């Protein structure tokens, strides 16, 4: 029996936070329909000042769903979204779900190799993509049986005046426009506007059930190449409800939430695409985070709730002070995806007068499972305490049937309505991650205080968290090892002063070769997204290995930490 069965952390909850959420009764489609009914006249989406009401959002979802149904999308089909944050992303997400189909989110900045691997795995035949990514997807579409590619020019969702400025014949306008749109679609790619002109889906069209799959979110899990985490409507709706319960001071229909996090990431998906929509918030969509853009929006429509990662809070607080922009009014902020330094908490709370707390989760938990209380019992420097309806155990990582006690190090395990259904077409990896009784192995080594606060000590899994994204070192190592100057490589994460980690590659050079960091970076960029490219390189005579020849990344990390003068 776990020593945490009594849930000692409940006494730490902020006033008004329930110990458990009510059993989920709504699919995400039903949730959106309720928000359309309750908040119809209120602004749902704000994109550079162009506003979409909840009523209009509901209508556009039904028309795009109708157009997708005409193109053969049915329940259970996977539909790939490869989009930045924009109104079309929100509409597409809920339109796919309305049909009982499955959303598969992708990073639009991924390379062709990265995207192709995921498309090959999930088998989507329809893809809705940023027009700047359309050509990338089109190149492998025939090979993988992709029948429909829809290209999205997100500038068409901007105010007319903003679009006119982007067409000005000046360098800054051309640069801004190029960052937002390709300006044209490749042959054979359908324009998004054709979907919005589609017929309204018949009211009687079957709706998804609670336990139907809503989304596949690709994650490296505990090791290896990305695999699709299967998240049901129940999982995602429960996590939105848990987030709502965690912040009892929210005013439904009146909050302003900034989507500074990418919505293709599990964290941005839940906090922006589901949680924000469930409370009738105004979702301010930012296609890319820059301090300048956020401060411009703050002058026009100040945020009240800001989910983000530590570097964003630090840069915003510093930039606002430099520019004389007030951050007052941001009452609540929740940080995730990497450790949150106490210094950033202090800087942010002084700048805003609001609260900044850390949360913890993983794609497999939809993603949030633990958070610091939104109140006086919060404890900066820890991950916080389990969310409502969430249980934890701390176990021997070599034998998860053996529980560890208060203050003892062990692997964290989670159980709750937000825990995923398994990995797409990966039964062996599913059974390794999901144990009997619905317990999820996290791969994180933690300690838990007597009153229930969780602190991460180490990770069993060798994933590197950089900029809020997971990087599997083996994927990067394979790319580096293909360079002619490299005999072998080991990639590790070293602590960054901004929180999280930065990628560092230890390289054993081939005979007669010398280190050319620039050449290695260019080589890596051809196969990897920018955040997976190592920031630094260090040359070693040999990589430390176990008796069976496995590279010991922990020892590599220790060597690099003790060295100076890395490139």
UniProtKB/TrEMBL annotation:
Domain AMP-binding enzyme C-terminal per the UniProt entry, residue ranges: 475-550
Alphabetically, the GO molecular function entries are: long-chain fatty acid-CoA ligase activity
Q: Name one Pfam family in it.
A: AMP-binding
Q: Give the range the annotation lists for the signal sequence.
A: none
Instruction: State the PROSITE patterns in the record.
Output: AMP_BINDING
> What protein is this chain from?
Long-chain acyl-CoA synthetase
Q: Determine the domain of life of the protein's source.
A: Bacteria
* InterPro entries named among the record's database cross-references: AMP-bd_C, AMP-bd_C_sf, AMP-binding_CS, AMP-dep_synth/lig_dom, ANL_N_sf, ATP-dep_AMP-bd_enzyme
Instruction: Say which species the protein is native to.
Output: Microcella alkalica
- Sorted UniProt keywords: Ligase
Task: Write out the ranges of the annotated region (Disordered).
Answer: 370-389
Entries under CDD domains matching the protein: FC-FACS_FadD_like
Top EC class for this record: ligase
EC number(s) per UniProt? 6.2.1.3
């Amino acid at each position: 029996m776990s020593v945490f069965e009594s849930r000692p952390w409940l006494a730490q909850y902020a006033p008004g936070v329930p110990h458990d959420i009510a059993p989920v009764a709504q699919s995400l489609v039903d949730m959106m329909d309720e928000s359309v009914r309750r908040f119809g006249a209120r602004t749902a989406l704000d994109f550079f000042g162009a506003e979409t009401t909840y009523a209009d959002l509901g209508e556009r979802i039904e028309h795009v769903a109708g157009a997708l149904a005409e193109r053969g999308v049915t329940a259970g089909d996977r539909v790939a979204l490869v989009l930045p944050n924009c109104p079309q992303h929100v509409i597409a997400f809920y339109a796919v779900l309305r049909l009982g189909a499955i959303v598969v989110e992708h990073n639009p900045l991924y390379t062709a190799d990265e995207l192709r691997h995921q498309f090959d795995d999930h088998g989507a035949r329809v893809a809705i993509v940023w027009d700047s990514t359309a050509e990338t997807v089109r190149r492998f579409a025939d090979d993988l049986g992709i029948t429909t590619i829809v290209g999205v020019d997100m500038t068409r969702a901007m105010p007319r005046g903003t679009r006119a400025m982007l067409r000005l014949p000046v360098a800054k306008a051309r640069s801004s426009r190029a960052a937002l749109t390709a300006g044209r679609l490749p042959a054979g790619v359908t324009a998004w506007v054709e979907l919005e002109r589609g017929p309204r889906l018949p009211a009687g069209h079957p709706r998804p059930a609670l336990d139907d799959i809503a989304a596949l979110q690709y994650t490296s899990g505990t090791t290896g190449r990305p695999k699709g985490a299967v998240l049901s409507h129940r999982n995602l709706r429960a996590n939105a409800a848990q987030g709502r319960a965690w912040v009892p001071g929210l005013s439904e229909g009146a909050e302003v939430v900034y989507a500074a996090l990418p919505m293709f990431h599990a964290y941005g998906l839940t906090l922006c695409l589901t949680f924000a929509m469930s409370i009738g918030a105004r979702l301010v969509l930012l296609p890319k985070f820059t301090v300048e853009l956020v401060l411009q929006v703050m002058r026009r429509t100040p945020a009240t709730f800001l989910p983000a990662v530590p570097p964003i809070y630090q840069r915003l607080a510093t930039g606002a002070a430099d520019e004389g922009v007030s951050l007052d009014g941001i009452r609540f902020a929740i940080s995730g995806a990497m450790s949150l330094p106490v210094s950033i908490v202090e800087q942010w709370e002084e700048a805003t007068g609001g609260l900044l707390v850390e949360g913890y989760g993983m794609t497999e938990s939809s993603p949030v499972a633990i958070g610091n209380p939104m109140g006086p019992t919060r404890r900066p420097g820890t991950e916080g305490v389990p969310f409502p309806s969430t249980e934890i155990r701390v176990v021997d990582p070599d034998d998860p049937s053996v529980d560890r006690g208060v203050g003892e190090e062990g692997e964290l395990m989670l159980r709750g309505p937000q825990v995923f259904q398994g990995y797409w077409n990966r039964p062996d990896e599913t059974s390794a991650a999901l144990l009997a009784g619905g317990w999820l192995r996290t791969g994180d080594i933690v300690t838990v205080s007597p009153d229930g606060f969780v602190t991460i000590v180490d990770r069993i899994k060798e994933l590197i968290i950089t900029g809020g994204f997971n990087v599997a070192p083996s994927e990067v190592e394979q790319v580096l090892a293909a360079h002619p100057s490299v005999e072998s490589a080991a990639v590790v994460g070293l602590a960054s002063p901004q929180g999280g980690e930065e990628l560092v590659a230890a390289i054993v050079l081939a005979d007669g070769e010398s280190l050319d960091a620039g050449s290695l970076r260019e080589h890596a960029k051809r196969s990897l997204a920018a955040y997976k490219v190592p920031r630094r390189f260090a040359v070693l005579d040999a990589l430390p290995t176990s008796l069976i020849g496995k590279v010991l990344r922990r020892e590599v990390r220790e060597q690099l930490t003790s060295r100076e003068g890395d490139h």
